[in-house]
Amino acid sequence: MTSSRRTARTVTTVVAAAALCGGLAVAVPTVASAAPQDCNYMGYNSAPDRLGLQLDPSEQWMADNINAYRVQNGRKPLAISEQLRRPTMWGALDSATRKDGKPVDHVDTRGMDPMARAKFCGNYTGTRIGENKYWGKGGADGNALGLGPAALAWWKQSPGHNANMLSPDYTTFGVGWAYLGVRAELGGFWTVMFGNA
Fold this sequence. Notes:
By secondary structure, the protein is of the alpha/beta class. The chain is 33% helix and 21% strand. It has helices at 47-52, 57-72, 82-97, 114-122, 148-157, 159-166; strands at residues 7-8, 17-26, 79-80, 129-137, 172-180, 187-195. A hairpin with a 6-residue loop joins strand 5 and strand 6 (187-195).
């Protein structure tokens, strides 16, 4: 991830620890009118916002490796969902910048759960949603806990996350990643949303 994309500029203390949260699949709730312009990065449709909606190399690595893992386990690969690009970007940014001590909470700072966020931020039309979140903090000892390999390894050993990655009910997904400071490996915040639209 380049420093010009989705970087929450905050001074952080480096510690070798990882805080992680389980996967979630929810039913369709009622949600207010869709407003994707409210889920932007540095201004809706600005150059940074448009750039943020594209998968950077780390996000592409995550997408490719989740699909490879699915294929290894007899599942079809997932397609990147246009409807889930903005909700995952917003989910990662919200996790990285929230101040309430719950950086990996599935309910974001606006009070939206994954389905509500997908509908509000992406006009999502699917009937199912799953979300994997991860926060890895630390890396001074060479363990890059904020990067994709650490997140993917943790999800594979967690029953809820693993079930989301391998579920045959999902056909699409979105991947979002944000980090604190200037060294991505020291504080990475991942959001992957799985859907069927």
